[in-house]
Amino acid sequence: MRVAVVGGKLQGVEAAYLAHQAGWQVLLIDRDPDVPARGLAHSFIQSDVTQDTPDISDIFKDMDLIIPALENQKALESLKDLSKRKRFPLAFDDAAYAVTSSKQKSDSLFRELGLPAPRPWPDCGFPVILKPSESSGSQGVIKIYDREDLISFRRGNTFSNDWITQEFLEGPSYSLEIVGIDGNYRSLQSTIIEVDRSFDCKRVIAPADLPETFVNRFDEITVAVAEAIHLTGIMDIEVICHNNELKILEIDARLPSQTPTAVLKSTGINMLELLYDIFNRGIMPDISLIMEEKPVIYEHIKVNPDTLELSGEHIMAEARPLRYQKNFFGADEALTDFDSDHPSWVATLILTGKTKTEVVQKHHRVMETIRQIFGLRECSDPHPGL
């Protein structure tokens, strides 16, 4: 099996890792020769897919699946057009993505469906969260504490109607993926999302171990959204449990980063294999019931000359080409640009165990091992959840 991953940053790292786990050959394509996912690919081509060249067409015709792993709208449109003209299997639902990539369109959809979501300003009190409508994840997210700060922010920044302003909610966050085709949908495993100071995901814990009533409600919400946007492929939905109610924070109809690896290690389900069934074979994947969920911690660290910090995935986006390593300072697996010639490096750590207590204890051992080996003065974990 040969797959082309277009885009070598966070989504590209996820796609390349999942493809490796499936035993597939990975071709990575990116304009930048030093993207993080390059070290995880079997081959690499430096190219701009917005330029429709014969070389790109010749490359794609030999691929079993093309995975867009980027959010550049021009590049996505070029891939979609090329896929239609040349009949390449592209793992992308452009209509669903058009809704989920816009927070304004997504919020409107939640209101139409009567689904719980944070209240918009000015129908809420402070603090509030400001989000650029077209960005994903935590990019550009700002917390505002009072009216004066909001007025000051709007005066000092280019503020337009493309921003979403809504209430800030406290509580644990959870993520869930759903896959499907032709109205036939199956949700997968819910995971816990922990964030850093900038609201960027620093850690995924699987399974989430939600109460059955919450599991059923989460599934109802996710299926309702998937049906409303006529999803083909995959969608990720993030919610927050506030005052004992699940409220939707974000949806994304694309291969997400971080959670697929945690789900794979916990359940054995590889979301990339599911996408192959949908976009190459045109069938709904046969997803067996999950009989056992193994505890998993998936997290990001950054090592500087004096400190070890657990941080959001943004630190991985600017990493040097990553390498896959087993038994990395006690972690089961790692994706890292660690190099003894560089005093600063980053790593995504994957920890597994028989029980959650065992995995948490492994996490603490790994942190202490790294701290001692490199003589680090401090280990920083903002908003610790473990």
What does this entry look like structurally?
With 386 residues, the chain is of the alpha+beta class. The chain has 11 helices and 19 strands. The strands form 3 sheets. Strands 8, 9, 10, 11, 12, 13, 14, 15, 16, 17, 18 and 19 form a 12-stranded mixed beta sheet that branches. It folds into 4 domains: 2-92, NAD(P)-binding Rossmann-like Domain (Rossmann fold, 3-Layer(aba) Sandwich), CATH 3.40.50.720; 98-112 and 170-281, D-amino Acid Aminotransferase, Chain A, domain 1 (2-Layer Sandwich); 119-167, Dna Ligase, domain 1 (2-Layer Sandwich); 296-380, no CATH class.
Jot down its keywords.
386 residues, alpha+beta, Dna Ligase, domain 1, 4-stranded parallel beta sheet, D-amino Acid Aminotransferase, Chain A, domain 1, Rossmann fold, 12-stranded mixed beta sheet, globular, 4 domains
Summarize the main sheet: 12 strands, mixed
* Proportion of strand residues: 25-35%
Count of alpha and pi helical runs: 11
**What's the number of domains?**
4
Indicate the radius of gyration in whole angstroms: 21 Å
CATH architecture of the largest domain: 2-Layer Sandwich
| Alpha-beta content class | alpha+beta
Query: In the CATH hierarchy, what is the class of the largest domain?
Result: Alpha Beta
Report mean pLDDT, rounded to a whole number. Answer: 92
Query: Level of helix content?
Result: 25-40%
**DSSP E strands, number:** 19
Low-confidence stretches: none
Q: Would you identify the CATH H-level superfamily of the largest domain?
A: ATP-grasp fold, B domain
- CATH fold descriptor of the largest domain: D-amino Acid Aminotransferase, Chain A, domain 1
What order do the helices and strands follow?
EHEEHEHHHEEHEEEEEHEEHHEEHEEEHE
Shape: globular
End-to-end gap: 39 Å
